[in-house]
Amino acid sequence: MADIIKNIEQLQEKIKNCTQCLNDKINGKDGKRHIVVCGGTGCLSSDSKEIVETLKRLIDEYRLNDQVTVNMVGCFGFCSQGPFVKIYPEDRLYHAVKVSDCEKIIKEDIIAGNCIEQLLYEDPTTKKKVEKQDDINFYKKQMRIALHGCSLINPEVLDEAIGYDAFKALIKVLSMDQQEVINEILASGLRGRGGGGFPTGRKWQFAYDQKSDEKYVICNGDEGDPGAFMDRSILEGNPVSVIEGMMIAGYAIGAKNGYFYVRAEYPIAVKRLQIAIDEMRACGLLGKNILGSGFDFDCHIRLGAGAFVCGEETALLNSIEGKRGMPRPRPPFPAVKGLWGKPSIINNVETLADVPYIIRVGAKEFAKIGTEKSKGTKVFALGGKVNNVGLVEVPMGTTLRELIFDIGGGIPNNKKFKAIQTGGPSGGCLTEKDLDVPIDYDSLIARGSMMGSGGAIVMDEDNCMVDVAKFYLEFICDESCGKCSPCRIGTKRMLEVLNKITKGKGSLQDLDDLYELATTTKNNSLCGLGQTAANPVFSTMSNFKEEYIEHVTDKVCRAHVCKAMTKFEIDKDKCKKCSLCARNCPVGAIFGEVGKVPYEINQDKCIKCGACMSSCRFNAIYKR
Amino acid sequence: MAKVNIKIEGHPYQVEQGMTILEAARACGFNIPSLCSFKDNRCSLASCRVCLVEVKGARGLVASCVYPVNEGMEISISSQKAIEARRHSVELLLSNHKKNCLQCDKNGKCELLEVSKMVGAREGKFIGDMTPSTYDELAPGLIRDTSKCILCGRCVETCKALQGIGILGFENRGFKTIVSPTQNRSFAKSPCIQCGQCVLVCPTGALMEHSEIKNVDDALKQGKYVIAQVAPAVRAAIGEEFNEKIGTSCTGKMFAALHRLGFYRVFDVNFGADLTIMEEANELIERIKNNKVLPQLTSCSPGWVNYLEYYYPELIDHLSTCKSPHQMQGAIIKSYYASKHGIDPKDIFVVSIMPCVAKKYEKIRPGQESKDGDKDVDAVLTTREIARMIKRSGINWAKLEDDATPDDDLIGSYSGAGVIFGVTGGVMEAALRTAYKTLTGKEHQLIEFKEVRGLQGIKEAAIDINGTIINVAIASGMKNAKVLLDEIKQGKSKYAFIEIMGCPGGCVNGGGQPYVKPMFLPNEDDNILDTYISKRASILYSEDEKQTVRQSHNNPDIIRLYDEYLEKPGSEKAEELLHTFYNNKREKYPN
Fold this sequence. Notes:
By secondary structure, chain A is of the alpha/beta class. Helices cover 40% and strands 16% of the residues of chain A. Chain B is globular and about 75 Å long.
């Protein structure tokens, strides 16, 4: 049982000790060496847990227990290169570590003191090995505010968080009055990181202005965009920062209880959050009369059952109340009538993670980062056809070009960049002409996309944009709650038209119909999900109209994605008559004679599975 | 009430603060089409997106059924954007709606059809797949056809908020969403009480009564003695099916029409109601005298009986063992009446015309048949169904004589007490009139017990009978009944007798009554949804006043029945024919 921290002085003392402890570790002043291993979801799925266990076993075997520690930390962000192992005090970063590398790390680095060159990241352009994290191009333009402490502290140990700035903001806030806190957030220019970009301070102000015996703070951790894992990584990497943000919000609006609504598919985030809450309760940082200030606050976790629509704030409220996750009409807004009819604010994980920083360094400092109307940083989950897939936090105003080419390292296999989808299924795609656009809320909307929660999926010339629209529509169609008719039926009808087009059965009339449906769904739907459901259609239609027209008039899919319009053929000159393709064909559509007659594909039989193409060792098979 | 200034289409209006745009527009003389909203904003999910309008300064179109007016608001209903949006919403609904309108029993009262006309929906727009549908006809009372459902959610809200039950909900997601009892079970396989309140609010043909017109046709074809008996509440509303204003008394025309449909005899269930009072008052007095289980609960509403069996089975002993009036009357027709006329009961086919869909279930309950297994009642038609039969027979309602009466044949007479059975509080009042006489030996001077009248959900009264105070209570609608039942469960109930009706307001607002939908009632007041129940109820009270015989025990046919056949209330014969038993149905649904 941890000791109760009774007042601010005791907490300050604790902060001092923990900070000293953490700094000593990083600087090596404690005379030990410390190994940290990435415990983000990506690395965990690449055996980072086994790496930790193996390292611990080896340390036992070599009797290094009093000289070396091994800890798991939050996400490093550079997911395509994981799992990461970092060694302090040298600040040496090993990438793509396998369980089989552990022995080498202990023997050559920990015992012999040598840097293992082959485990260092190699810069793809200069071909030089890079030892320190900050020298890797991927990290150079990044700035970690929301991800503060991720990849540094052990998220399952409260003292580590306390050693790395936790609760400094809380202490500050407890000496301010509620309106001062709200003013600070207003002055920082912080806007909601969940997608809409509504000014956070104004949201708090609305809830503060309501007179009520009970109010609630809700943290929206129902991250559901395909390919997005920003909130997940924050919760997994530094849950205490989000709890602190929630406490500050609770203090500001006058709430005594907060709810974390987290997807059940995020078990690690939930576990670490629960550990943090339990530890904080145990030492009196949650509960009644926190630090003797008279401020009562506690928080609770509610698991989402995997419905995308529950990320919509009113559907989320229904879900917490145990009802079916269907959006409520607005007004009344949640700030007036929210959870159980009480004034409530719903903030995204990343938004709340930004709050302690703003209070700690001051709104002015925060407002220096970013563009005129979008302050601070934004975390993106960079994915798709880009070399450096991972989690990226950049200042607002960074251009897409910097994001994709400098941080992301460009497109693999020298393919041509075609588009980047931001904002998930509610967003839109941006193209070559938008590459130098500074990323902020308003500029993305002006170009037909949106910030969204931070999904960023890069597409190259091999992506068919009609197919991309279809992919997102399929997602939305499945995830529509079914409550309002434009979304329930409109998305289905759009999907039907897109299916028709990608099957080569579309006509120019279908394009008009699609546009009409998209407009109706946008204008008529009840909630944000439906109102933005057509965005992928709008943005692909406006940016890639010619692709749509090719699909319906010429029955051509230039990216060779739409099977109905794609043929696999064998280049007779390149064919070595080896028969490998014919043997791999699941339907016996390829005929020829080994060593004598070049192989050919019977188009009537071919099911376009592509097995022949991937089996051919001479690039003799192509799509047309 | 504070007023706000708004503009609609540029014209200034003053409306009450707190109104929705839809209400305000209606008050100012505009009709905005809407489907999901019902009783204005009291039941609205804003889900159909048919009532969209443009509001200056608002982000996008707004759903007028939930959006409140505020000072200076400028509303445009007829902007091209709004007109097109409303039409598209309807066209999308139609693209996923089974359009067999010509054969649909809802035709004429289908709000979707009416709204389609209003918005000018075009043929063949947005054609595509249909949601996989369910046709549930297993329940005797109700039919659910999801192929016609537009998922407005009115039934869901009604079952949950009005009746406090919540059988219906949304199942599945996206395009596969349907409204159904949990796991898309049949009504028959869920603890649904079959009150039919959901049917009353359904804008389309997705929820309907389970029609038995064909069964009646078959019986007529077979040349059976088809005897019709009509419940008190039917006369209070049947005229509405023939464009009479709500609250128009149609007893004479109703009997005139029934006499023209080929039935062998037409009787009034008011006789059965009088009989029920004789038995139920006797049972109450017996319970009081012998210190048996009290309070006694009435048993004439089958939806309510279902509710008790499903949700409060531990209170079954409180329920009167009396069959409901039409079941009693059916039993008498097939015994006393049949023997008097020398007709084989097997050749008799009793058709009850009821304001109720739960009665369709009640007639097949165990314990509602003779010793030989003949069902007391063979078919139950709702008010809506009998109106359909009248319409198809070519009868011109307007030209019917309006002083026709039931056949005067052994059981043709009735008292005023029987008439008021159709409204909440009526059974109580009728029982009190007879109980007073039985206990005191004389008639109550005023005849009427006005303290038990009115449409409040829960009423109570203390009746002084010769110095003995009898506490009584009345509830209609299951949400209200629950309050009284919980009191009994906790041992806190002070009442001796409680009347409970399944439908709010009693039988006049039964699930089988004509639909009250403002869009089809241009000549009714704006607040008709607030007043129709009391308007219907007043018909019954004024008919009671007109009767020379006001008490059940003074009905001459009742007196003769006891003299010649039953002997006395609660006799062995009466027990056999007029009383029944109940079952614990919760066991079927332990959770």
